[in-house]
Amino acid sequence: MLLLGGGAASRPARASSCCTPSGWLADSLSFLGSDGARSRVGVLAVSLDHGDTLLSLNPDARFIPASNMKLFVSGAFLLQAGPQARGVTEIAGSGKLEKKHGGREQELKGDLILRGSGWPDVYQLLLPGSRGLLDSLAYLLHEAGLRKFGGTLWIDGSIFADEPYGSGWAIDDIPFSYGAPLNAVLANGNSATLNVTATARAVSLSLDPPETPLRITGRVSVAEPGAMPVLSITREAGSHVLRVTGRIPRGTSVKRQVSVPDPDSTAGLFLLGAMRRNGIEARARIQSVPAGGQAPGPAIALARLESPPALDVVSMVDAYSLNAETEALLRHLDPAPTGKSAAPALRRLSGYLMEAGIDTLDVSFVDGSGLSPQNLATARSFVRWLEFLDRAPALGGIFRQSLAAPGAVGTLEKRFSDLAASGSLRAKTGTLTNVSALSGYLTTQGGEKVVFSILSNGNRGSGSAARAAEERIVGILSRFSRERLAAPGQGPTRMVPR
Q1: Domain coordinates of the chain in residue numbers?
Q2: Residue 480 in contact with residue 448, Cβ under 8 Å?
Q3: Which element (helix H / strand E) includes 111?
Q4: How far is CA 255 from CA 192, 197, 207, 233, 319, in A?
Q5: How does pLDDT run across 338-374, given as a tens digit for each residue?
Q6: Hey, is 386 helix, strand or coil?
Q7: What is the mean pLDDT of residues 194-205?
Q8: Quick check: 121 and 132 in contact, CB under 8 A?
Q9: Are the beta carbons of 156 and 295 closer than 8 angstroms?
Q10: Which fold has domain 88-163+262-308?
Q11: What whole-number distance in Å separates Cα of residue 3 and Cα of residue 190?
Q12: DSSP label at 235?
């Protein structure tokens, strides 16, 4: 058992495997036992150039991986779809189009059908300030000449089964964007922005987009300048009431990302609002296509929008650790043309992992995003998977470039500042209560390519001790030089565990 953090000792948690550190850098892990609070830790670092082990500790023990789970899903999605594949979201019209003003403008007397592709909406993440999915579609409708619409707006999300949440997700996560429900449209990740602004005497609360179907209750008070903002946000399952309490300093604004209820109907409200902002008179009722049903037809395509290439989509999903979006990528592994669901997708994912040579006993999954604490995986499984992806002919070594880098957008933006300039680290973080993980690729100062995984469970407090340990281990790996460490005839203490 290795130790992280501070605090009183407690009974050690049982581990599926326990061993002493091994590898070229085995002695460097002694610092992990120097504090006081007990955590289970698994570490494996392997040279991609030489195939030998640099660091190994409990590599075959299973841990809750948190968002490191996304590495399995996003890699399998790229293998199946291909890096340059794109999804297509379409708006079709059913009914009569009447031309006006010399044919330059049109009025639709009938229905509109929004057909979701199930691909994540990452336009504004890739190009900040650009239009998102629904604003782009509304703009294209206006450019096509549509000026008036007053029928029914159908939301066709039939490509996915009705599974809004991943298995094992906590009910406490529902109000927040990281616990947003899944659907086939996924506009802005099925989330909205809560804006809280304190003036001299009062606090105003609003939602963006303004069409977000949530009613805000509660009370936020004005604090003195310099005070820390404190906000509590809750929403009951199935409720449209967002309760916000707390305090923020006078003259400041705070933004929080919240999830939306009923994602299909909310997507319809968002689209109608975007149409109005783009100069289209739109008064319509919103209707979801029922499971196994069909939208009215025949229909003519009025606007279509391709997603960014799959590699760009994956890069944003992994960099920002997007949960609902990863659940969408997982469901695309299901070969069914419609009604794609998690169970067959997870079976397909297992097939990819077996192809990579991963022991099926090393992993146990219930969702795709890692938000569920019921997932389990070993450091060995992550290292083998990352090795496999790096050498997969279909990817040509580009998967590593899709991961977050220090100083760039995403979860590593403010970490590993000493490695930001070199571009030597590409990795995926993972965080849950008492869980921290970091897996990815590293190029040492001597130019040697390394793949690694660091998993810890049972962390106490804020998790800062676990993150500090991750950063120290990565720093040790980055400075590794086998020429400096190896005496004549001496090698690593252990090869890659198999």
Answers
A1: 2-83+312-485, 88-163+262-308
A2: yes
A3: strand 105-115
A4: 10, 9, 10, 12, 20
A5: 999 999 999 999 999 999 999 999 999 999 999 999 9
A6: helix
A7: 93
A8: yes
A9: yes
A10: D-tyrosyl-trna(Tyr) Deacylase; Chain: A; (3.50.80)
A11: 39
A12: -
447: Cβ–Cβ under 8 A, 6 or more apart, which residues? Answer: none
pLDDT at 18: 54
Asked whether the beta carbons of 472 and 408 are under 8 A apart, the reply is no
Q: Given a cut of 70, is residue 7 above it in pLDDT?
A: no
Q: Looking at the domain that runs over 2-83+312-485, which CATH code has it been given?
A: 3.40.710.10
Task: Identify residue 224 by its one-letter amino acid code.
Answer: E
Long-range contact pairs involving 172-177 (C-beta distance under 8 Å, separation at least 24): 173/371, 174/235, 174/237, 174/259, 175/233, 175/234, 175/235, 175/242, 175/258, 175/259, 176/233, 176/256, 176/257, 176/258, 176/259, 177/257, 177/258, 177/259
Tokens of 104: 């330059």
Q: What percent of the chain has pLDDT over 70?
A: 91
Q: Cα separations (Å) of 325 from 111, 181, 321, 330, 361?
A: 28, 10, 9, 9, 27
Please count the helices (runs of H) and the strands (runs of E) in the chain.
11, 23
Tell me how many degrees the CA angle 430-431-437 measures, rounded to the nearest 5: 45
Please give the pLDDT value at position 195. Answer: 97
Structural Rg of the chain based on CA atoms:
25
